[in-house]
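Input for the complex:
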Amino acid sequence: MSDTEERRGGLVGYVLLLPAGAWLTLFFVVPLVTLVSTSFYDPAGSLELGYRVTGQVTNYASVLSDYSEQFLRSLGYAATATLVCVLLGYPLAYAIAFKAGRWRNLMLVAVIAPFFTSFLIRTLSWQLILADQGWVVDTLQFLHLLGEDGRLLATPVAVVTGITYNFLPFMVLPLYASLEKIDPRLIEAGSDLYASPFTTFRTVTLPLSLPGLVAGTLLTFIPAAGDYINAQLLGNTRTQMIGNVIQKLFDGGSYPEAAALSVTLMAVIVVLVLAYVRRAGTEDLV
Amino acid sequence: MGSANDLVLTGVSKRFGSFVAVDDLDLTVPAGSFFALLGPSGCGKTTTLRMIAGLETPTGGRITLGADDITALKPYRRPVNTVFQSYALFPHMTIAENVAFGLRRSGTRDVKDQVAAMLEMVELGDYGRRKPAQLSGGQQQRVALARALINRPRVLLLDEPLGALDLKLRRQMQIELKQIQTEVETTFVHVTHDQEEAMTMADTVAVMNAGVIEQMGRPEDLYEHPSTTFVANFLGQSNLIRGELGGAEQADVVVDVHGTRLLAPGAQVPDGGREVWVGIRPEKVTLAAAGAGALRGANVLESGVVTDASFTGVSTQYLVRMPWGQELMVFEQNTGQHKGFVVGDTVDLHWVPDHTFLLDAGQDSAAGVERETVP
Ligand SMILES: Nc1ncnc2c1ncn2[C@@H]1O[C@H](COP(=O)(O)OP(=O)(O)O)[C@@H](O)[C@H]1O
Ligand SMILES: [Mg+2]
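Predicted:
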């Protein structure tokens, strides 16, 4: 290949990158820069009067001291919901991939079907399901798993249930994609080589589905940590998550604090995700 | 050695729905033998192997290994290991981890040393830390072999283990596999659809067709004395000519073939009617110019016309049209002593009566002919 051809080839590559680059700049870089700079504004200003760019870090200090409780709660709820999603989603994905036979496509459609209804509507219907007079509470009370005046709505259980419900497909789909790729002969090879079904699962199936598990937990945990709809519709004031705080600050016009909180949430999530991915060692997987 | 470790299948069947993949199969694999299960694609070889491995449950029958009935034993409890058709190496493990897998399950102690020794044996000593994807097809094949053999199974099952390799590598691996088998003295059950592979490697070959065993024996016996038209055509090539049995003549029997009197070994006469297929292998026949004298006692078919002659180097392969219209194959060794014939020559076909075999005429003379062409 001659020099000019090579250069032209390179040029074409850059030209092809332009739309994506423009898109990223417009919808990611600009908002991010705006968000970060807003977080350093003087909180005394307002949209009408304008803000002074003071470059102060007090926004961060104050939101961290004021809202650390909601912060930890968000991470806790998100982690719990992610864990429950794994416990529910793994067997489901496994069944669809290996046991469903001709029902496979139907089951996949069933996993995706909830997306045809709005997120909000679906969460609202959980209000009905978990309501104090609902059959779930009745049943649990009948079984004495819940006290006479016990309730589900407006408790952490309801919020975590809502999050779990809403993000379960994001766990199941990548897990299914990973499991479905596993050659059944590998599982047979495991059992041919003296591994019991459980040992084969532990040494062959699980490691090979790790990419899907990592993707699923990230797709669940990240949006769950920033979610506020579930806490708002299914929780009470004592189950507020960081998303609710940001929304409240936003509604109250406290843009600099809201921005500082958002940036902090992003930073924490990035750090957690990096640590997690490195721990899971997915880059080493085939 | 001896019958204490023979693998015996008694009346084993496998049905998938209404489809019978393996039909009432009886098979004895002598301990320590290199046993080949040979048959065309789809005849039930893999299914048979999977039932021995425990990966498929027989619909009927019994499988015993020595004194142990293993018919219902879980695969991970059987002293049997498999080299899978596509190797099925664990992609997330290194070569050494793959080979160690079985030993780790059984809690053996000096796993590391055994793995090193086994990798040495299959000439992959330096590859232990690689992943399967970093190895060539031939190397992966050897890893699969090592991973199975290291467990010292009482029977090793190989499902078309060389099928994915190119011709040259396949020939080389055939020799290596045979050497390894002689070295470890384990019973090998080797499944293949390649008749040449089966004959070069195995002590005993079982020819399988449509879920049943057609014939079983030493490769030489199968080749020289096929008992069905399928075996006659599937193992090498055969000329099958319609004939009618006559009387006995000392140890031989007389057969009338389109008006010509031929002799065949009397031990070969099939049960059934007087109609028979008279078989003769193309390389057993010599061509002579029409009317040239034959050796005393030879079988002679006169007045054929050469319709095709193709020179392959080692031999010349002729097609000769006989007076009754059938085309017969004749392979002449290129010894340099005969002058070749050309299309249109009139020739006689000579052969030694002992090389003749007789088959029941109730069978399709074309059974087993349509083989997959060997690449
Ligand atoms: N799980 C199965 N379900 C239905 N039919 C099968 C199954 N496994 C094999 N068969 C059928 O059984 C026959 C024998 O298959 P197989 O043992 O794989 O043949 P071979 O290994 O000799 O090529 C084939 O016709 C195949 O389609
Ligand atoms: Mg097969």
